[in-house]
Design goal:
Elements (H helix, E strand, L loop, with lengths): L8 E2 L9 E3 L22 H11 L3 H8 E6 L4 E6 L12 E2 L2 E2 L7 H5 L2 E6 L8 E8 L11 E3 H7 L2 H19 L9 H11 L2 H10 L2 H4 L4 H9 L1 H17 L8 H14 L1
Antiparallel strand pairs: 1-8, 2-9, 3-4, 5-6, 7-8
Helix pairs in contact: 5-10, 6-10, 7-10, 9-10
The protein binds iron/sulfur cluster (SF4) (2 copies).
The site of one iron/sulfur cluster has 12 residues, from loops.
Amino acid sequence: MDQTQGKARVEPVQLSRDSRIHFRCGKDLPCYTQCCRGLDLVLTPYDIIRLKKRVGLPSDEFLAIYTKPELLFQTDLPVPTLRLLDDPEQSCPFVREEGCLVYTDRPTACRYYPVGAATMRRQYADQSEEWFFLVKEPHCKGHDCPDEWSIQEWRDDQGAKEYDQINAPWYDLVVRKRSIPPNVKFSEKAKAMFYMASYNLDHFRRFVFESSFLEVFPLPPEKAEEVRRDDVALLRLGCEWLKGVMFRHGDMQVGEEHARRRMEKRGKAK
Ligand code: SF4
Ligand code: SF4
């Protein structure tokens, strides 16, 4: 084994959903919870929805207490990462000796581990491509276990499918940003909109219902009601809105025609 002491080794093999791995994780292993310390964990929008509900906090408080913002690699987009404890091991705030306090609501990356997932879109392609890789950390004894899985089976067993489905429109935004030249930068205002509609959903809900948002993007009453009470529906709306305002794609673009109609409406109101 050429593992570098103390450092994760990413297997240089591109894996598909059908690729097979040997792995098992459990309380009986001597490394139990070691992977929950000293980690760098980017949170997805659905991770925040689940975790804020689990700890009973609104999104802005959850983000302030449990996360710190970083720029997502190769995108320049702001994302929250898990804020680790200030202890010698830099532990996840949810880890205890007996295991994960929020196990049934644990983030996407914890569900995939030790599998990493990546997505890319080739220039001019409509669909993005996904692939997987294996992360081997010296302390993780799970790789020595004979239990065999396909990546798909591992993902399903860990409940990652629901997370991937709900996060899919957001992943699409990230892939869109990655596929445009890196010198195309978004304004700070656009990045703040991205962060709000992706992660600070309670704030975004107030923005939708307490600003002129619904005048610009009217919603049928039943959809508005769904967005008012359901975070997942609100996230879907947020991603569609971001696709329109940041990438000029989809049904929620503010075009010239719309601007003309708004001007007319304002004129009539005077
Ligand atoms: S086997 Fe790996 S993933 Fe499981 S507890 Fe040990 S270090 Fe963590
Ligand atoms: S959320 Fe749970 S599984 Fe994930 S790092 Fe923290 S303690 Fe470990």
